[in-house]
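Review box. Two proteins, two foldings.
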Amino acid sequence: MSGHAPRDPNPQTIMNRSTISFSERLRGFLRHRLVASPAGTLLLFVQRSPLVKMLLPEAKLVTSAGLGEIATWTVATVAGLGAYDSVAGATTITQLAPTRGSTTVKATTGKNLTFVFQLSGYPDTPGSWKVTGLPAGLKHADEKNNTIDSVSGTPTESGTFRINITAYQKSGYSGDRFSKSFVMKVAQGAPADPPEIDVLQPAGVHLVDGRSGAKFATTRMGRKSGPLKFTIANTGKGDLTGLNVTLAGSGRRDFKVRQPSARTVAPGASTAFKVFFKPKSKGIRKATLRISNNDPNENPFDVKLKGRAKP
C-alpha cells in the first residue's frame, strides 16, 4: 500500500482548494511585487478593483502553472488603464461644451464663453477641482462633490493659453488627483463699443489714413529740424488702446519719433506726439509714420512723411 495520502475524490473540494490557492497567491504576488515596483502605487486600486473580483471567482478554472501569466496580465491591464481606472475604461477629463470631446477650447474676446468638462472612469466623485492658466475675464465655478465643473465669463485678452484642470478626491484640494491639460485659443473680437481714431496735423486738420502726408522744412544733413506735432483723438465709444508709433520705409532712419504721452485714450479725449527730421543723406527723404491702435478699421493708421536734406 502506498505511503501517499488518499486523494479526495470530491470535485468541489478540489475547486475550493484551487480558488483559495489562487486568491492567496495572487494577492501575495501583487503585495510583494508591486510595492517594490514603479506600479506600486496601483496596489490599492488593484486590490479593490472589479478586475480582481472578476478573476478570483473564476480561479477554479486556472491551474497553478498559469498563475504567473494571469497575475502579470492583471497588473499590466490595471497599470495600462491608469492609477484611477476601472474595468469600465481609463480615467479622463472630457470637454462637454462648447466643443464636445475636443482638447482645444475656442473663444473670442468680448464674447461670453461657457467651458464645461467632466471627469469619468474614476472610482469616486471628485471632492474639489482646480483650474489654472485662465486668461483674464474667465472664472472657475469650483464645483464641490461633482463629476462636472465649468469655467465661464467673457475673455478680455487674446492668445493661446494652456489650461490645466485637476480633479481631487477630497475637498480642500487633497487626496488622490487626476490632471489634464487643454489648449484655449482666444481670438481677438471687435469691441462691443469700438473706438475711432482721428489724427490731426497741424491742429484742426484731420488726416486720412494712408493718403495724407506731412512735410518738413529743408534741413541740413546731421541737423534736427523743428518738430511736427501730431494729435491723436478718440471720437468713438470705446477706449482707444495700444498706441505705438513706428517708422517704415527706406528713409525711416532720417526721422525720429517721440512716443505719445498716453498709450490709452478714453472716448472724447486725446494725446499727442512729436516727429523730427534729422537727415543722414542729402536729397528728398521719405518714410511712413505708422500708428498702431485698436480701431477695428484703421489699424495701423499711416501717414506719409517727406523732407528735403541739403549738405
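Next protein.
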Amino acid sequence: MLKFLIPTIFTVACSLGVSATFAEPLAVTVINASVDTKCAEEDNVYIKLQSPDVTRFTFDAVQPVYASKVRFNRRAPDFTNCTFGPLIDAKKAKSEIKSPAPPPPFKPASQVLYEDADIIINGIRYPDFWRKMPVPLTVDGKTQENWHLLQVFTKRSKLYGNPFEHLVLYPQDGYWRSRMMPVKGRGENVYGASFLVGPVDEIERPFVDIASININPKARRFDLVFVKGGKGRIEFGEPTSTSFSVNVVLERAANTLNQPFAAVRSMYVSQTNADSARLMWRGTLNGDWKGGLLPTVKQEQAVEVKIDRVVPSRHNTLAPDFVFKSFSK
C-alpha cells in the first residue's frame, strides 16, 4: 500500500524524539437529515458532518460484516414503489395513443486521460447532467475537456484480469464513490453510498461546488479548489479485500466553517432493503459504538462515525460500509 503524505501523530512524535502518544481526535457534530422513502433507487439518506475546526480526516470503505457469508450478491436495481424507472416509462408509453420512436441509445463518450504501469484515470461524458457547471480539469499537468465522471483504476490489483475501478468523482456536484476489492468467491462489490468532501451546499440536493481539479496520478492525489473559497486534497492508496482508505486535508475558507465539511448520501427503505442501514458513533477513541437503525438516530457528537449494515440487504448486498475517523486540526 502506498504511504500517504499525511503524517500520523505517531510518526510526528517519533521524528521529534518524544514519546509516541495518540491524541484524542476532534469530536464532530453528526446530523441525520434523512427522509423516509419506499423507493430503493432514491437517495433519501443524508448524513452531515460539521465542525469549524476539522481540517483532516480519513474515510474508509469497508466490507459489510456479513460479506464472507452471503450466498447471493444482489446488484440489480429495484424500482418497486418508485415514481420513475422502466416500469413507469412503460406504463406511460402504453397509455399514449401515438408515441414517437424512441431515440437510439446514447453511448457516453469515454477517454483515457492518463495511464501508466499502475493506474488509469478515465473520463466519461454524458448527454446531460443535473448541474450545468463545467469544472476545469488538469491531469498530470495536461488540461482536459469537461467530463461528467472521473474514474480511477488500479492496475496493481486486478479483478478477473482487468484493472479495478475503486474511486470515482462527479466533478459537477462533488459526489465521490469508493470501494474495496471483493472477498474471494463472493463477487464484485457494487457502489452504494456516495460521499461529499468540502463545503456542502443544498440546491435541489446536496452538492459541493468545485472550481477546479488537479489530478496527480503518480502521487495518487486530487487537489480541489472550491468555488466558495478553500481547497481540498484527497489522497489514496491501494484497495484490499477488506478496505480502501481515502485521506482528506482541507484548507477551509472562513465563510464555510459553519457548513458541513463532509456528508454521505445513500438509500434506506428498511434494514433488509438498504445501501446503508445503521448510523453508529463513538464519543471517545476507545469508547463503545453506539447508535442504531438510521431512523432512530438524529444528532450526536462523535470522534468516529460508521454507516453500515449487519443484516444482508436485498439491494446492493455487498456495497461498502463506511467509516469516518481521525478528525483533527
